[in-house]
Amino acid sequence: MAPLKVYGNVFSTATQRVFACLHEKNLDYDFVNVDLSTEEHKQPPYLARNPFGLVPAFEDGDLKLFESRAITLHVSYAYQANGTPLMAEDKKMPIQSVWMEVEAHQFEPTTGKLVWEVVFKPMLGMTTDDEEVVESEKKLEEVLEVYEARLKESKYLGGECFTLADLHHLPNIQCLFGTPVKKHFEARPHVKAWCEDIMARPAWVKVIQKLSV
Amino acid sequence: MAPLKVYGNVFSTATQRVFACLHEKNLDYDFVNVDLSTEEHKQPPYLARNPFGLVPAFEDGDLKLFESRAITLHVSYAYQANGTPLMAEDKKMPIQSVWMEVEAHQFEPTTGKLVWEVVFKPMLGMTTDDEEVVESEKKLEEVLEVYEARLKESKYLGGECFTLADLHHLPNIQCLFGTPVKKHFEARPHVKAWCEDIMARPAWVKVIQKLSV
User: How far away is chain A from the Cα of B196, in angstroms, using its nearest Cα?
Assistant: First the structure.
């Protein structure tokens, strides 16, 4: 069997989302670095893998995929028997789906902007737009209020078990915990406990170790 | 059996997404209008249905859902035997998933901004931000270039059959076809043919008829 292949960059939060899933599933994979500094992701060979020129891309034998959440969904279904079950049982899937959509349409747009402004811009020598940060932090607080209420009701977003609905949040949370934005997560006890719980998962710890080598 | 219930607004594109799915499935449902003009969606009774205060929300017996794409996913799986099969067969699901994610992360952010600027702002007596329109149209052209290439390869985004991956695009396409933004879709022959094909579906025609009563 051809090995699974991840094309991406270890600093890309979307690539990290795929790593997290593969580690939860105890799956071996080859990693092919895409050099963002030389715009390798905007050149034809990579564009054939992802026509939008974004990392990551993925290969499972003949199947070629892109979009991190489509990749994690495929891995979770195709390797159901491996490692952590990342999908709720059928009856509980609709609720997991709701929170996967909330991540995509509420959490990601807000935290994605913050990650760009307070993590990547300083790293790239660019100037943070303070107004954008204030506005995004306000929006983040509203989103986290809803999360706090949800996590009072159930240990994880989808229910009592860790699923993809939680996993998809990990890269942006990890990034923001290294910045002052962390305070908004820590101010809400159930959100704080959930963040600490999911960031301590052995699979995620392994993903983080990749960043320091 | 308690009837399916949609809580929303006929002018909301997200509500229309759910209508489109229910009509494709030939399912009866009750519609409960949420009065956006009096901010009914920001009051406690509605917030209990969707804590983010957005339409639509949905009920299927005891199951209460929100987020339009989580609702269409539930309906497509739970009522698999009804009407149009909106999910590809298992082996082809990963590719459908990719294009569902593309809609969510590439198409919706761009066309959602345009719908706001060129459809809803004028309707509400607000001033369109021309700079925002120019920028979003540029981004839309890039996105549609990728769609054109994809639709040269296969009749629909997920493959040879109409699925949720196509359906999720309908409300924003319909809105923008009533504006000058339409030209970007019409300039690309495969995109144009796809738009005309999916907008002519009897289920979608029924959704549009709701707007004129």
Answer: 24
Quote the minimal CA–CA distance from A213 to chain B in Å. Answer: 31
Predicted model pTM: 0.96
Pick from A21, A42, A91, A37: which is nearest to B78 by CA? A91
Q: What value of ipTM does the predicted structure carry?
A: 0.95
> DSSP of B37-95, one letter per residue?
GGTGGGSHHHHTT-TT--S-EEEETTEEEESHHHHHHHHHHHTTTSSS--S--GGGHHH
Find out whether B201 and B24 touch, Cβ atoms under 8 Å: yes
pLDDT, tens digit, for every residue of A124-174?
999 999 999 999 999 999 999 999 999 999 999 999 999 999 999 999 999
**Are B162 and B123 in contact, with CB atoms under 8 Å apart?**
no
Predicted local distance difference test score (pLDDT) of residue A3: 84
Tens-digit pLDDT profile for residues B124-148:
999 999 999 999 999 999 999 999 9
B100, B106 in Cβ contact below 8 A?
Answer: no
Q: Do B73 and A97 touch (CB under 8 A)?
A: yes
Question: What integer pLDDT is reported at residue B213 of this predicted model?
Answer: 61
Residues of A in contact with B105 (CB under 8 A): 67, 104
- Which of A70, A73, A94 is the closest to B74 by Cβ? A94
Beta bridge partners of A66: A57
| Residue A186 neighbours by CB distance under 10 Å | 12
| Strand A29-33 with A4-8, pairing | parallel
Q: What is the pLDDT of residues A59-115, one digit of tens each?
A: 999 999 999 999 999 999 999 999 999 999 989 999 999 999 999 999 999 999 999
- Using an 8 Å Cβ cutoff, are A179 and A133 in contact? no
Residue A46, C-beta contacts closer than 8 angstroms, at least 6 positions apart? A7, A34, A40, A53, A57
B106 contacts A94? CB cut-off 8 A: no
* Residue B3: DSSP 8-state: P
Angle value at C-alpha A191, between B39 and A141, nearest 5 degrees: 40
Q: Which residue of A has its CA nearest to B47?
A: A146
Q: Give the separation between CA A153 and CA A160, rounded to whole angstroms.
A: 9
* Chain A nearest CA to B6, separation (Å): 15
